[in-house]
Amino acid sequence: MSVAQAHLSNRPAGLPPFKLMGQISAYRTTQCIRALVDLGIPALLEAGPRSLSDLAQATGTKPELLERVLTHLVHEEVIAVDDQGRYVPSPVTCYLTPDHPQSLRNWVSCELDPLLWRSWESLTEQLRTGNTAFDLTHGSAFFEWHAQDSAAQSRFDAQMNGASRGIGAVVVKELTFAPDTSILDVGGGNGSFLAQILDKNPMTRGTLFELPRSVEDYDPLFAEMRRQGRANVKTGSFFESVPSRADVYLFSRVFHDFDDTAAATILQNTRKALSGHERLYLIDMMAGGQDAGSRASSQDIFMLAQLGGRERTAAEFSALLADNGFETLSVKSTASPVSILEFRPA
């Protein structure tokens, strides 16, 4: 018997590591939630109590199999049963419906889709080679893939739109701009965040700067702003250049997509476009904050595996910006998971 074996054999018997066991098997519940959302069951339950046979008929599933998944989700308190044995919503079921203002349905559909889910299979290889897990799995980088896959782009836009509306409702209250201010939203997706900014700041105008899309599918409010002449779209890659002649440059949850080398390229291209009076606003989750904890580290690992990016502390952001010609003016936390950092050309 080795020294290590002897050491282990002398340990007193105790309780199994139940928390660890739950962490290992957590994916089972995750996939049951995905199936629940794919079948549209949360919306059915919100409309009224449903028997097993009702749900099976409405979703085209086999009752004896569906029952087993629903039983697990009852135990996990994702859904509930009433005293007649019918399935009913739990307090969280409504967040899995499409019409709830803080719906997580699009998040489930995007992050648990096989496109992203399979990327995690390459995490170990990423740790060994440094190549991003998504790229290793699919042979293409995240945004390059989405630019050619309209279904994947739609799922991603829907998730980002939901997040932008939830976070934007808090963040826009903290961003006030004078009339005639021109705002450039760099990497702003389908324009949902920029539309909220323009809506809250009358007499301002905005430009969305994004990669070319296979399908022009913009946020409805942003599309209305375009019709009114308050917003326009410019396409291109911020790794090549960034448009000039804006007063305010917004980067909402952009830099966590990239490592420091890539982020520096974006910042250097931005600095070249500026004359000196402009302001940069970075809206991002701050790692290392008092309340960040596992939420921030979980998001950091997601960015690592899917995009090769990372979450940063406020100090790391300030250092990154300083290295690329910007001076920190303020760091403001919000009631959402993100903070607002303001910079100016140094």
Automatic annotation (TrEMBL):
Which GO annotations describe the biological process of this protein?
methylation
- Entry-linked InterPro entries: COMT-like, COMT_C, COMT_dimerisation, SAM-dependent_MTases_sf, WH-like_DNA-bd_sf, WH_DNA-bd_sf
Keyword S-adenosyl-L-methionine listed: yes
Any one Gene Ontology MF annotation carried by this entry is: protein dimerization activity
State the Pfam families in the record: Dimerisation, Methyltransf_2
List keywords of the entry alphabetically. Methyltransferase, S-adenosyl-L-methionine, Transferase
Q: Give a yes or no for keyword Transferase in this entry.
A: yes
Tell me which stretches of the chain form a coiled coil. Answer: none
Active site residues of this protein = H256
The O-methyltransferase C-terminal domain, residue ranges: 120-327
Q: Where is the O-methyltransferase dimerisation domain?
A: 24-95
Any idea what this protein is called?
Hydroxyneurosporene-O-methyltransferase
